[in-house]
Amino acid sequence: MIVRLIPLDEAGTEALLAVAVAQAEPAEVMPRVEGEEGWTDAAKSAFREFYRAHASAMYVIDVRGETAGMIRLTPTGPGTAETGMWLGRAMRSKGVGVDALRTLLAIAADAGIDAVHAETTPDNTAAIHALARCGAVLTTTPTAVTGELRTAR
Residue 149 in contact with residue 102, Cβ under 8 Å? Predict the structure, then answer.
């Protein structure tokens, strides 16, 4: 599989929005928006606002020229960062998340980051699997699973 991470720009934001509307629920890809459920005009505007505000930490996950989802690398301190990602339904359970996370860890190492933290819910088995496949040390509580990843730096 060929996964590329492309720094988020305006065209990438619009491509991500198209994938999100077609293949994800708003709560899977951004903070909750008050009002009606689903992809309302307000939800689409909130998506654009949120992604524009955080673009410097986000990458479009590209699989052979197709937008698959988003992954982020948010610095949290000297040598540390946090990551999170989402994939459109068409790209789930295909190894895309593992490949994207491995690629992100290489970017993190090149940026001088030694440790990357991730958090998910215990029912998100795909994310837990991806973290484990990338060598994360996992800690599980009744409400969260955290993964601590080391870069190859």
Answer: no
**Are the C-beta atoms of 117 and 79 separated by less than 8 Å?**
no
Write the DSSP assignment of 41-81 as a string of letters: HHHHHHHHHHHHHTGGGEEEEEETTEEEEEEEEEEEETTEE
Give the helix/strand (H/E) hosting 19: helix 10-23
3-state secondary structure of 143: coil
The boundaries of the domain holding residue 116 are: 3-150
Distance CA 119, CA 145 (A): 6
pTM above 0.85, yes or no: yes
**CATH number, domain at 18?**
3.40.630.30
**Number of C-alpha atoms within 13 angstroms, CB side, residue 79?**
6
d(CA 45, CA 26): 11
Residue in 102, 48, 49 with CA at minimum distance from that of residue 71: 102
pLDDT at 44: 95
pLDDT at residue 17, rounded to an integer: 97
